[in-house]
Amino acid sequence: MYETTVSVAFVAQHYLTVPDPGPEGVPHSHRYEVELTFSGPELNEYDYLVDIDDAEATLSALADRYRDELLNDHPEFEGTNPSVERFARVIFEAVTERVGDETVTGLGVTVREDDVASGAYEASV
């Protein structure tokens, strides 16, 4: 199985919406690092699994969407708790809509929060 990984870092804000979230229930900032790992059993005619430029451009656009923003204000988080795990799933869904190389059969998204915690989502595409 081949894998190609790209990553980006940015700062965004959120607050948790679970019962009794403590200090996490007040808007606060995190430094997020988002890592995309594309996987597949074969390479394309140019010996690539995924076009890295396309993957980086997609990830950069997503970082720009959330950079210095309150995640809770975005429609994709409406009615949900904007946890690091939920954030990974939101990014997974956005990336699979935009990066469609035929050789990619799986995508893993890891979101690191302040080098302390991380959440991930992985599935076939």
From TrEMBL:
Record key words, sorted: Lyase, Metal-binding, Zinc
This protein's record includes keyword tRNA processing: no
Chain coiled-coil ranges: none
Cofactor or coenzyme needed: Zn(2+)
Domain of life: Archaea
GO molecular function: lyase activity; metal ion binding
The protein's name: 6-pyruvoyl tetrahydropterin synthase family protein
